[in-house]
Every structure is written in structure tokens, then in C-alpha cells.
Amino acid sequence: MSAVVNGWFNPENTDDQVTGVVAGFTSREGRFGTVPVMVLTTPEGDVSVAMGRSVLRGSFKQSGAQVGDEITIIFHGKAPGKSYYLYTVRCPAREASMPASQPDTLSPVPTW
């Protein structure tokens, strides 16, 4: 079963993932207010990723990815004994070229 449903990344199973090029950022009104949204361009079409979860946003920032970079988002499920979900964001273009201590110095990415 695909983790993309109606154009949205909607992971349910551990290791569900999506790979695409960061096309840009927008927002959407959700049940709990305005939610930041990242748009990925994939071979199957654009995929929207709701960036409302702080662990996902943090992993994205740590990856150093920027608009135009290819990334992979991997869903790891709920943290054992916790109420939050775990994600990894991989950006091969940045992993070799950027020290892990400076991911927030890049632009243009939102400052969620």
C-alpha cells in the first residue's frame, strides 16, 4: 500500500517513505490552525507533506535540504512509550557538504 494518498504523504506503516525534489512551501488550514506544507515533485506527480509534527520539521531542518534538493522522508512510527512520531529526512546532496551543527543557516526554507 502506498504512503501517498490523494496527493498527500500519509504514512501508516513503519518505514513508509516518499522521495522527491523539494518544490516549495505553502500552508493549509487544518483542525488545529494553519499547518505548514512542503511540496515534493516525484515521478508520479506532486506530493504534499504536512509539516505540522515538530519531529518531522526538526529532521527536515537538520537535513539541510533546500528548494531544488532531492530528499527522502522515512516514517518510523510512534516513539516507544511516547505520544509523538519519528521521522528521518535524508538529503544526499547536503549530507556530504554540510556540518551537522549548521543546518539552520541555509535558505530559502521556512522558519517554522
Describe the model.
12% of the residues lie in helices and 44% in strands. The protein is built from 2 helices and 7 strands. The radius of gyration is 13 Å and the shape is globular. Mean pLDDT is 88; it is low at 102-108.
- Note the total helix count: 2
CATH class wording: Mainly Beta
Q: Structural class, judged by helices and strands?
A: mainly beta
Second CATH tier, the architecture: Beta Barrel
> Mean pLDDT, nearest integer?
88
Distance between the termini: 31 Å
Total number of distinct structural domains: 1
Strand order of the largest sheet: 5-4-3-6-7
Assign an overall shape: globular
Give, in order, the helices and strands.
EEEEEHEEH
CATH topology: OB fold (Dihydrolipoamide Acetyltransferase, E2P)
Which sheet architecture does the biggest sheet show? Answer: 5 strands, antiparallel
According to DSSP, the number of beta strands is 7
Residues in helix, %: 10-25%
* CATH homologous superfamily label: RuvBL1 DNA/RNA binding domain
Instruction: Give me the Rg, rounded.
Output: 13 Å
